[in-house]
Structures are given as C-alpha cells and as structure tokens.
Amino acid sequence: MSTRRQSIDLVLGPLTGLVMLLAIFMVFVYVPSDRVQGIIQRIFYFHVPLALMTFAAFGLVAVASALFLWRGSRTWDRLAHSSAEVGMLFCTLVLVTGPIWARPVWGTWWTWDARLTTTLILWLIYAAYLMMRSVSGPGDQGARYAAVLGIVGAVDIPIINRSVYWWRTIHPAVLITREGGSGLSDPRMQATFGVCFLAFLLVFLWLLLVRNDSARLRDAVEELRQQALMQASS
Amino acid sequence: MDNLRFLFAAYAAVWALLFVYIVVLSRRNRALEKEIEELRELLQRRARQ
Amino acid sequence: MLALIRKDLQIEFRTKETLASLLLLGVLTLLVLSFAFDPTSELRVEAAPGALWVAVIFAGVLGLNRSFLAERENECLQGLLLCPVDRGTIYLAKAIGNFVFMMTAQLVIVPIFIFFFNLPVSAAFGGVVLSLLLGILGFAGIGTLFAAISVRTRAREVMLPLLLLPLVVPIFIAGVKVTGLMLAGKPFSAAAPWLNLMVGFDVIFLVVGWLVFEYAVEE
Questions:
Q1: CB A97 within 8 Å of CB A46
Q2: pTM of the model
C-alpha cells in the first residue's frame, strides 16, 4: 500500500471512531426527546443519515458505472462494485431501522408509504446487481452488464418513486403523514443530526475504502494467477 | 419506558450489521494479501529455476 | 432497420414458438388468478386490472427470454453484429419486434381477460388498450436490453425476472391504475397523468437502451 493510502487509513479510521462516539453521546445524552414522539424519535438520527448515504452510494454506482463503460478502466468498475455493496449494507439498515421506528409510532411494521416502498425496490434492484456480479466470472463482460444495470437502476428510481407516491396519494384513505426529520426546531436536535450525518458519511467513506481495497487485491490475485499459469505452460 | 426497547433494538441492529461487515471485510482482505504473497513467492521461485 | 424487424417477424411467424409461449402463459396466469377469487365476490372486479397486468408481465418476461435464447443458440447475434449496422438500431429493431409479439398476444389475452372476469365491454376499453400499448412498449424497451444481458449470464432463467420486475414497477402501477379507472367508468382525464408517466418511462428507457445496448452485446 502506498504511503498516501496508509496515512489516509491512519487518519480516517480513528476520526470515524471519534465522530461516531460523539454522535452516540449526542443522541443518547445531549439531545432532548421529541415532545410528540418521545424517546423513539431518536432512531431518526441514525435512520435518516443512513438513508442519505444509501442514495449517495447508489448515485456513485451509477456514475462509476457510466465512467467504466465510457473509459474502460478497472478503477471505475471496482469503485462501482464496492459502492454497491456498502450501499446495500446501508439500505438494509434503513429497512431495518425504519420498521422498528414505525411499529411503536404508527402501530404497524410496514406501510406502503412511498419512501419505504421505493427503498424496498431500490434494495431489490441492487440485490439483483450484486447477484449478477457474483454469477458472472471475473471477466470484463460481467462487469459491463452490471454497469448497465447500475445506470438503468439509478435512472429508474426517481420514476419508481413518483409512481409509488401517486399510487398512494390518489387514494385518500391512506396514511400519508410522514415524519421526516423536517420538524427539527431545537438547535440541539439540528446539531445532533449534523454530527450523525458526518459520522455516517465517514463510516461510508471508510467502508468504501476498505471494500475497494478488497476489490483491488482480488484483481491483483487474478493477475498473479494468470502469470503463474502462463509461466507454468511455457 | 417501553419504547426504549425499540430504540435499543434499532441501534443494536445498526451496530451488529456494521460490525459483522467490517470483520468480514478485514478477514477477506487479510486472506487476499496472504494469497498475493504466496503467489509472488511462487513466481519468483519458478523464475529462478 | 426495417429489414431487421422484418427478419425477426418472419422467423417468428414461421415457427410461432414465442407467440405460443406468450399466449399460453398469459392465459394460464389469468386462469390461475381467476381461481384466486370467488366468482361472485366484489373482490374479483377490483382485482381484475391487477390480474391482467400480472399476466402481461409474467408472460412478457418469458417471451423475452425465448427471443434471445433462440438467437444465442444459433449464434445469430454474432452474425448480426458483423453487419455494418449501428448497435442502437439493432436494439430498436429487436425492441419493436418484441413489442409486436407481445401486442399480438394481447389480441387473444384481452378477450380472454374480459371473458374470465366477466367485464362489460364499453368504450372505456380504448383507454385500457392505450395503456397496454404504452406499457408493453416500455416493457419491451427495457426488457430487450436486459434480455440481451441475461441470456449471456449463467443463471439466465432466473436473472431476467430478477432484473426486470423491480425496474418495471412504474409501468405495472400505471397500467393497473389506468385499467382500473377505465373499467370503473372514470373520465379519461383521471387516467391522463398515469399515461403521461408511461410515455415518459417509454421515452427515457428507449433512449437509454439505444445508447447502452452496444455494451450489452460486446464480446
């Protein structure tokens, strides 16, 4: 590993840990409880940043996929794959923390709320992406197919969101009210939210880096294996 | 407070999944690095022959 | 491009394999869904639009698989790629071909649908047909792109539905909505935003497919 990478590692790891520690402190000790929802509202300090990072991750997948198709460099493909995997982790966390919040507040684990449903479909699309990558070999072809899916998926998501939202709101007898962290009046709440966002941004970047290393190492192993094979047959 | 149970569940889930992923990734990376070392040695040995 | 479309259609109308599978699957799905509902219940009429579109989508996914499977087995795709034709054009030709197949299947599926679900035939059906036209166009557009991809992947039978179903959710929702509104006798204006959504979807994904198809078939 280059020294620049090593110094990034040295800084990013502990920094992530520290900011996360601060975030936990703020969520559990510092911030006051929401007047309406009570203590359960604190889930949002993690849930919303996780969701934002999920979207960022999948946006990155689309951009990296497009760059890979255009330029052909392995770097972009590895980045796309890594971002997809880390994004999936975050998406899973969103879909886990969401219902845990919903159960005491709305009385049900799941509603066909537009955001929840779109996130579920997002999860399914990227599950297909990851499955496609594991099913295709190490060659470039599989990577290209996945890149196509990455791009099409990202383009489709806004359309899916719009259609699910209309699907819900044209029927009036449906739960439309959505608590969305937009009711953060208290500056302490805003500060907590900001710190949590920063914490998860760092976690995302750190995981992305580690996962990207994995991809780079795997490529290196492939290359060495190829060399060994050629050497053996010569 | 009953809702504390849910709050705990949510945070525990986040931490558990993040932790598991990090552990899996680190293990995978270390195994890959080891394999690279072995392959490099193999190639060097063969080249010397 | 017309020649390409003509070639696909000629092949198909000689063997009629794809058409047969589309038809059979569509009708079978409608049949099975009919059994899900008591013939006298109100639920049946409410569920009818959903049943139609489930049949369309399921049959469509399998039909798409077949159309590329045949090409792959005969290495036709390689031959096609040797032609000095723009990849995007090949894509459009294949998509239109698939669209025509699916619409042809609808000629039988829709009457059976009316028959099984005991629906009144009125002028409202124009709206349903329009939604089918737009929906199937979008489905064929996005489906052709991914059929080309999944046919060359290992787990190909399961890959195409896995990829396609989440992606065509807007088409499905819009189609069911429009069909439901039309069957309930609502005015056309109520269905208009959904139809617009479908048009948008079709345009966006036909363009994306046209741009990206060459990466899907490169060696």
A1: yes
A2: 0.84
